[in-house]
Design brief:
By secondary structure, the protein is of the alpha+beta class. Helices cover 34% and strands 21% of the residues. The chain has an 8-stranded mixed β-sheet. Strands 58, 59, 62, 63, 64, 66, 67 and 70 form an 8-stranded antiparallel β-sheet that branches. Strands 16-15-19-20-24 form a 5-stranded antiparallel β-sheet. A hairpin with a 3-residue loop joins β42 and β43. The relative contact order is 0.03.
Length: 1526
């Protein structure tokens, strides 16, 4: 700690030594230090105490001083002074000079003092300017870049002149010109400290102490130190050299950056840099940023004209070059280029350039002007040096100087040294005048003249981390007054009045310390800070450092704000009266004796009344207002005593009242007047005395400094400094509160304890951090500081552009309107367009066909004040050719091309449109999130125990307020689900207990997401997650949003605290209670829970009933089916005990649904998508409610199917009937094959049998595919393609069955109407039959599968392989044709019966065979049409009433026996068929018997059929024969 103080006071001492010569004051050094130490004698006790606690450390400090009187410094240092500073904590034991460097206009010569020498390496590296003797030299031709200095000669040798006798200083050093009035001299201190010495201090520690220098420090009447700045720090670099870095608010000049190269970890910006790879040998240091001008150099080139008849003309070229143009070359590059000029350069016959000379170069100076240097062999003339003052880093010698502090307005330039005339005598420069009596013999100061010296201390922010400005305040307050500089000057007091901090807008905010304030006009001129107010004609903070050097003034000396009064005639004439008054006084006689002897009595001064308050850290009692109370008396006695002791004109003091707020004491003090510092001394004294008895609260009069950040930015709040009066040691504790809630340290909130202050660092300031802040520092007494109201974030700029990315036809005149907007109160710029910043900017870009290129044209829309933080780009791609889509909003594009465009003004993100095949653009992707939700999503990634309560409350408020927009947006729902997931993760990982209030906010948020209006959004999310595609931006990889939503609720619920409570919202009910043996409860009359027995241990149970969670969770069962429906409330059950038997009773939501399943949500199903699983659960009772019994706890519900009954009898009927049907069809086809030639002897019979055969074949193949489809649907591993194929063939052949029946009916109609034969041939009729029987079904089946299969709506899910009904209604493609054919066939039968009845009395000319065939067709249709109609009518009935068991059984029976009925009514009831069968069996029987009697089993049938045949043909054997042979 002593090291930095030694450095600071070393600078003061060097300045004092330097000033002694100029005042003729050569007091003995020992006497000086004796007086100096004598001023600190009263603090010897403090020094002894510090010695006992601080380790002694010896440090060597190297200082580089710019000075002219070298002999004086040598004399002072040769006396070997030993003295102490800083209360004896630092002792300077010795000081000696090592190296002396001086300039010879071209370079430095550095000589060593006695017994010191340069090392051999330095002599070789920099060049020796004298002899090298014994591997050393006494002089080198440069100032070493790495800061080396002369070293002691370790090997004794005969002293060479170079070592033992240093060269006398040049006239430039020994004979300085007298300072001009108010000359400011920069003293450069080069401190070289070994790293090992610093230990834990670091450069920041030195930086802090140097900047705490309590200047201005008056040396004498002519010299004072006005400021100390640490500008440059050099560190060892990786390459062995040095890296020299500038402190904050300082930078290297343009040419220095170019000459010495910029460090790799910094950049060359704004014509300056912060770090270079060397220490400039010329002694340059970092300059203030405000004074570093752009790289503009004024280069004066003298161009003598060629001699005509030898006329030489000097042409002056003033070259001003921006730094960015030089690109590292610098002035040296220009200098070298000009020097390489090969003249003469002939311009014409009369003019030529014979030479080029660079004479003058000007650089930006530290004071904002220019410093103009002369090149080698050139110098400024005497008068120019005097008129414009010589630069501080050069000297005025030989009647000239090498640098001045301005560019002469008359155009003068540096002149050749050989042509400069001597200065005309007498001048102050060449012949210093002897010191005037005022200088050599300073007159005593006027009676105690007090001069305010202003010290401007600029400290980089990085330095303030550990020991901030409040330590400086404490240090200054401990200043031990009456610091004697010399016989004429002393420091009597020091006050810290003004402190400036960097503001967020890039400027400064300047605060006044206690008892100081800004004057009225300063507050108005520079505006008052946002965290302070303008009261009592003053303010405590302004938004700038006044350029005129004004500082905060004592509150007591600030006058009222001036009131402007417009001039009036009376006011105008008043000065005339005043002017004539002296004339009257002059001409009138002297005053009468009565006036002189009896002056009027002086006015009685009005007492001044001041009101104060103090805060006692004790519990308030109204008894304190009783004057007899002990506390009242103690406080009153101390106030009275301190007022009398402190206030010279004290009159009275009265306690006004004791009030609540700990205990607040208000009191008033009356006095004739209050002297400077009396009020502060009074308050401090009362506080100190009361603190000896009571715990006191020191309320800071300033607010906690704060500048509103953007959301998520870092904020540092500083509490302090702690005044000495509070009496703290190092054991004080810290409490930070926001809205009276304690802030606990966590990953985002870091509380630090500094020397005299505390800092609260909020790594990311969110809305949850907003509020009123209070800081309490405690150690017996309490130091309290509060914020100025609520600290809040700034509105975040929301920059939006349109379009974002678009293709534009590269044709002349084709234009695109670009828009660039931002929310109020911000403004944007659109680059590179030159337009004034505005809230909204519109620009029309016009394409130029000559400038088409593959590189997009990019525009940048950026916020004006923070362009790097808030900006968006517009990318226009210029293209040629023809395009499918062309729209003014989206531009041009071909199929599947996409464009990006902005969201709504209150949303963040983007939308994407694609070019469709129809030539239009359509939105295909939406990534837009409401801005408040996006901000909450960002914050949810950084939640802590401090921020969680406010965050959940904000989340519920925002979700409810924006519910109308949230529920219709899958993106917003997904964002809130992600927020809840982050909340659950934080709660689980940080072991945060969730109380009733926090859980209420969670359930309110969750309730909005389960509303009925959100159903479509959840379907979109679930479908996208199931298909592994995404329309939205999401961090979910393994889980679907719906599954993640439920999981987050479960995880948060598992962290509930141990208390019992109930929460009821509009969508969710939570009950948390405890039980021991059994538990029974009914929740909202929709869910009942019964736990019959337990382990007898007291345990908690939490039950959450969701009213509409079925809108969120898809009815996705174990086999990934969505055919089921969630038909009960979803109930989440958790317990701290082990529950293996729980009964849950669900009320059924939809009474039309049947087949209940007791299920729970399994998060692991379907690779993390989640789904309903029935493992461990079973249905125990079904009536008006469904009762489930499960052996575990989780989220339960019931699934029910909207169709189909799972009855074994239906399976038996179906499979037995299908078997009979297929056997019957095979028999039918065998019979038809055997008798085909016998029965197909005419066209009508042929066509009838063709129809029967195709009907049988179609139904047989359909039944075969039905069995295949049933096997596919019953398999554990689903095969959708195989199921699709089976469905297609079932559909096709069932339709073929009906269309062949239609063909038979049309044949019957045709033959009935055209009794005499038709015009159509047999082949034509056959072709029509096949086209109708197979062509029409094929067309219908192909169209159905083509329309529904691409969208996966062709077949049913989780059922038999058959046409889909619920999604696409594809089943209608079979039902409608089938039932329509039934109706048509019935109509045809009616027509045929009508025709036949009308012709009964008419001789029918038709052949008996034709007549028989028509009769069989009619009979077949008469039986089969109603049968098929009834069968598929029952099929429609199963869809209308899916849970009617009778309809299902009837449909299964008739549907499975269709083949049997075709055999019976289409084949066996045909007499001709039986006749032919009879003949065949008869012939077989005759051949197989000898007596002619047949014992064949077919005999009965043959006889039966013969009787029939005889009955029909008994009238005419010929007819009968003809009929039988048909």
């Amino acid at each position: 700690m002593a090291l930095p103080k030694a450095i600071g006071y070393g600078i003061i001492l060097l300045a004092i030594f330097y000033s002694l010569e100029h005042q003729g004051y050569r007091e003995s050094l020992n006497t000086f230090f004796k007086e100096l130490l004598g001023t600190k004698a009263s603090h010897s006790y403090a020094r002894e105490k510090r010695v006992s606690t601080i380790n002694t450390r010896e440090v060597i400090v190297q200082a580089v001083v710019d000075a002219s009187d070298l002999d004086l410094i040598r004399l002072l240092l040769s006396s070997n002074p030993v003295f102490s500073v800083l209360d004896g904590s630092v002792i300077i034991s010795s000081a000696e000079a090592t190296s002396v460097c001086s300039s010879n206009m071209t370079e430095y010569e550095c000589r060593c003092e006695d017994s010191l020498a340069w090392s051999y390496n330095n002599c070789i590296t920099y060049g020796a300017c004298d002899e090298i003797v014994g591997d050393t030299c006494n002089c080198i031709n440069a100032l070493p870049e790495d800061g080396q200095h002369c070293q002691p000669v370790t090997t004794p040798s005969p002293p060479s002149p170079n070592v033992t006798t240093p060269s006398p200083p040049s006239p430039n050093v020994t004979t300085p010109a007298p300072p001009s009035p108010n000359v400011v001299i920069d003293l450069v201190v080069d401190v070289r400290i070994p790293v090992s010495v610093l230990e834990g201090y670091g450069v920041s520690f030195i930086r802090t102490y140097l900047n705490s220098f309590p200047g201005p420090y008056i040396i004498n009447n002519f010299t004072q130190i006005i400021d100390l700045n640490l500008t440059t720090v050099c560190y060892p670099g990786l390459n062995g050299g040095l890296q020299c870095q500038c402190e904050e608010q300082f930078a290297w000049s343009c040419e220095t950056c170019i000459d010495h190269t910029v460090c790799s970890n910094t950049t060359f910006t704004n014509d300056s840099c912060g770090c270079i790879n060397a220490l400039p040998p010329g002694g340059e240091l970092c300059e203030p940023i405000t004074s570093v001008a752009p790289c503009s150099r004024s280069t004066n080139v003298t161009t003598p004209a060629p001699p005509s008849p030898n006329v030489v003309i000097d042409l002056v070229v003033d070259v001003r070059i921006p730094v960015s143009v030089l690109e590292g070359y610098g002035v040296s590059f220009i200098r070298n280029y000009l020097n390489s000029f090969l003249g003469p350069f002939i311009i014409n016959d009369f003019t030529q350039i014979i030479d080029l000379n660079l004479t003058t170069v000007c650089y930006p100076g530290l004071n904002g002007g220019l410093q103009c240097y002369c090149e080698e062999q050139f110098a400024w003339s005497c008068d120019t040096c005097i008129d414009h003052t010589v630069c501080s880093n050069t000297t005025f010698t030989n009647d000239s100087c090498g640098c001045i502090n301005a560019l002469p307005p008359g155009g003068e330039l540096c002149e050749p040294i050989t042509s400069i005339a001597p200065c005309p005598p007498p001048t102050n420069v060449t012949t210093p005048a002897p010191p005037t009596p005022n200088v050599t013999t300073p007159a005593p100061p006027a009676p105690n003249v007090v001069t305010d010296l202003v010290v401007d201390v600029r400290i980089p922010v990085s330095v303030l981390e550990g020991d901030d400005v409040f330590f400086i305040l404490t240090y200054l307050n401990s200043f031990p007054g009456s610091f004697i500089i010399n016989n004429f000057t002393q420091i009597i007091d020091s006050n810290l009045t003004t402190v400036c901090y960097p503001g967020l807008n890039g400027g400064l905010q300047c605060y006044c310390e206690e008892q100081f304030a800004w004057s009225c006009d300063t507050c108005i001129k520079h505006t008052v800070c946002s965290n302070t107010t303008f009261t009592n004609d003053s303010c405590g903070c302004v938004n700038a450092l006044p350029p005129g050097g004004e500082l905060c003034e004592p509150i007591t000396s600030i006058g009222s704000c001036p009131i402007s009064t417009p001039p009036t005639p009376t006011t105008t004439t008043t000065p005339m009266t005043t002017t004539t008054t002296p004339m009257t006084t002059t001409t009138t006689p002297p005053p009468t004796p009565s006036i002189e002897t009896t002056p009027p009595p002086p006015p009685t001064p009005t007492p001044v009344v001041e009101t104060f308050r103090l805060i006692m850290n004790i519990e308030y009692s109204n008894e304190y207002n009783n004057p007899d109370n002990e506390v009242h008396q103690n406080v009153n006695n101390i106030i009275q005593a301190k007022c009398k002791e402190t206030i010279e004109t004290f009159i009275s003091a009265t306690i006004t009242s004791f009030k609540k707020g700990s205990t607040i004491v208000e009191y008033t003090v009356r006095a004739s007047s209050f002297g400077k510092g009396e009020l502060q001394a009074l308050k401090s004294g009362i506080f100190t005395e009361l603190a000896k008895t009571y715990s006191m609260i020191y309320q800071s009069s300033t607010f906690i400094p704060f500048q509103s950040p953007f959301l998520g930015e870092k904020v540092i709040l500083t509490c302090g400094t702690i005044p000495l009066v509070v009496g703290f040691t190092d054991s004080w504790t810290i409490e930070w509160k926001v809205n009276d809630k304690m802030i606990l340290a966590d990953s985002l909130h870091k509380i630090a304890k500094n020397r005299n202050s505390s800092t609260l660092t909020i790594e990311r300031f969110f809305t949850t951090d907003q509020g009123e802040y209070t800081c309490l520092l405690k150690e017996g007494n309490v130091f309290r500081q509060t914020s100025n109201g609520v600290l809040s974030v700034k509105v975040t700029p929301l920059v939006q552009v349109a379009p974002m990315k678009q293709k534009v036809k590269c044709e002349d005149g084709n234009s695109v309107v670009l828009t660039c907007t931002v929310n109020s109160p911000y403004k944007v710029k659109l680059l590179p367009v030159v337009l004034e910043p505005a809230n909204s900017i519109s620009h029309t870009y016009v394409a130029d066909s000559t400038k088409c290129s593959p590189t997009p044209v990019v525009f940048t829309c950026q916020e004006e004040t923070s362009p790097n933080l808030f900006k968006k780009k517009v990318s226009l791609e210029l293209v040629r050719g023809s395009f499918l889509c062309d729209d003014p909003r989206f531009g041009v594009g071909n199929l599947d091309d996409t464009v990006e465009f902005s969201c709504e003004p209150d949303e963040v993100g983007q939308r994407i449109a694609a070019c469709l095949a129809n030539g239009s653009w359509a939105t295909v992707e939406i990534n837009c999130i409401l801005k408040p939700i996006k901000e909450l999503l960002d914050q949810s990634q950084f939640l802590t125990n401090n921020s969680l309560p406010e965050f959940l409350q904000e989340l519920s408020n925002v979700t409810i307020a924006l519910s109308a927009k949230v529920v219709v947006s899958p993106t917003n729902i997904n964002a809130i689900v992600e927020i809840l997931t982050n909340v659950a993760n934080t709660v689980t990982s940080s072991n945060i207990e969730i109380n009733r209030d926090l859980m209420t906010d969670v359930l309110k948020t969750a309730g909005v997401l389960t509303l009925d209006e959100a159903t479509n959004s959840w379907e979109t999310l679930n479908n996208k997650s199931a298909s592994n595609s995404s329309v939205i931006t999401s961090n979910f990889t393994d889980e679907s949003p719906s599954s993640s939503f439920l999981l987050s609720i479960e995880n948060i619920t598992s962290s509930l605290d141990k208390s019992s409570f109930n929460i009821e919202t509009t969508s969710i009910i939570l009950t948390k209670t405890t039980f021991t043996d059994s538990f029974t409860a009914d929740f909202n009359s929709s869910v009942g829970i019964d736990i019959p027995e337990s382990d007898g241990v007291n345990k908690s149970i939490t039950v959450i009933t969701f009213f509409s969670m079925e809108n969120v969770l898809p009815a996705r069962a174990v086999d990934n089916s969505t055919s089921n429906v969630v038909n009960g409330k979803v109930v989440l059950v958790q317990s701290t005990g082990n529950i293996t038997n729980i009964t849950i009773e669900f009320n059924i939501i939809n009474d039309s649904l049947k087949t209940p399943q007791c299920v729970f949500w399994n998060f692991d199903l379907f690779d993390g998508l989640g789904g309903w699983d029935d493992e461990g659960c079973e249905v125990s009772l079904v009536n008006e409610t469904v009762t489930c019994n499960c052996n575990h706890l989780t989220s339960f519900s019931i699934l029910m199917s909207p169709f189909g009954l799972d009855l074994p009898i239906l399976d038996y009927i179906t499979y037995i009937g299908v078997g009979i049907s297929m056997l019957s069809l095979v028999i039918c086809l065998i019979i038809e094959a055997i008798i085909w030639r016998k029965v197909c002897r005419n066209t009508t019979a042929f066509l009838r049998h063709v129809s029967i055969v195709n009907i049988a074949v179609s139904l047989l193949i359909a039944d075969i595919w039905f069995i295949i489809g049933a096997a596919i649907s019953d398999a554990e591993v689903k095969n959708p393609p195989a199921c699709t194929a089976a469905t297609f063939f079932i559909h096709f052949f069932y339709l073929a069955l009906f269309f062949w029946m239609l063909a038979s009916a049309l044949l019957l109609l045709y033959r009935t109407i055209s009794v005499f034969g038709g015009d159509l041939s047999k082949n034509a009729l056959l072709a029509i039959g096949f086209c109708l029987g197979y062509g029409a079904p094929l067309i219908i089946a192909v169209i159905t599968i083509a329309v529904t299969a691409p969208v996966e709506e062709y077949i049913r899910e989780n059922e038999a392989c058959w046409l889909n009904w619920h999604k696409s209604k594809a089943l209608l493609a079979f039902v409608i044709p089938a039932l329509l054919i039934v109706v048509i066939n019935l109509c045809i039968l009616i027509i045929v019966l009508y025709k036949m009845l009308r012709r009964r009395g008419v001789v029918d000319s038709a052949q008996p065979a034709e007549k028989n065939a028509l009769s069989v067709i009619a009979r077949t249709l008469a039986f089969l049409t109603p049968f098929f109609g009834l069968t598929w009518g029952l099929g429609v009935g199963t869809m209308i009433d899916p849970f009617n068991i009778g309809i299902h059984i009837a449909f299964a029976f008739f549907n499975s026996l269709q083949g049997f009925f075709i055999l019976v009514f289409g084949t066996l009831l045909d007499k001709k068929v039986w006749s032919e069968i009879g003949k065949m069996t008869s012939s077989i029987g005759t051949r197989s018997t000898s007596g002619g009697n047949s014992s064949s089993g077919l005999g009965f049938f043959r006889n039966w059929r013969r009787r029939d045949g005889y009955n029909i043909s008994s009238h005419d054997s010929g007819v009968s024969n003809s009929y039988i042979n048909t």
